[in-house]
Amino acid sequence: DLDTFLRHFYASYHPYYNGNQPLIHPQPAGIAVTDSAGRFIGWHAITVLRASLDPSGQMRIYFFNPNNDSGQDWGQGIVTTTEGHGELPGEASLPFAEFASRLFVYHYDPLEHGNADAVTDDEIAHVIQLAHDSWGKEFDTD
């Protein structure tokens, strides 16, 4: 249930939906790595460090990528950055929805409820479309 998975991610990590609670500890997560054409390459572990607004007012996920913190082109115009968007030394970042589109596993505490119902259907549909048009193609059963 990708819709519910994403709503819980937003409610857990996005300050607008989690009561503006910062991450207390870095959180391991798994991403579906894609190449510059958006094709699935494999699974990869990263560490989510924080979520916050960048200097332009865009909500971003800041993370540590142990294999390569430099700008990576994940296709669909999704390119990780390491500077210019409020990154601290050692951080990479992506806009929240773009990061969520490559997410396949994250830590979730069912005792800390954010407001999953407040995440707009349009936002979730956008993330799902990015996933289906890239790494999700590998797993579509239609």
Helix content: 10-25%
What order do the helices and strands follow? HEEEEHEH
The main pleated sheet reads as: 5 strands, antiparallel
- The total strand number stands at 5
SSE map:
Blueprint: H1 2-13, E1 27-34, E2 40-53, E3 59-64, E4 92-95, H2 96-100, E5 103-106, H3 121-132
Antiparallel strand pairs: 1-2, 1-5, 2-3, 3-4
Helix pairs in contact: 1-3
Q: What do you see in this structure?
A:
20% of the residues lie in helices and 25% in strands. The chain contains three helices and five strands. It has helices at 2-13, 96-100, 121-132, and strands at residues 27-34, 40-53, 59-64, 92-95, 103-106. Helix 1 packs across helix 3. It is globular, with a radius of gyration of 14 Å.
Main traits of this protein?
142 residues, alpha+beta, five-stranded antiparallel beta sheet, 3 helices, globular
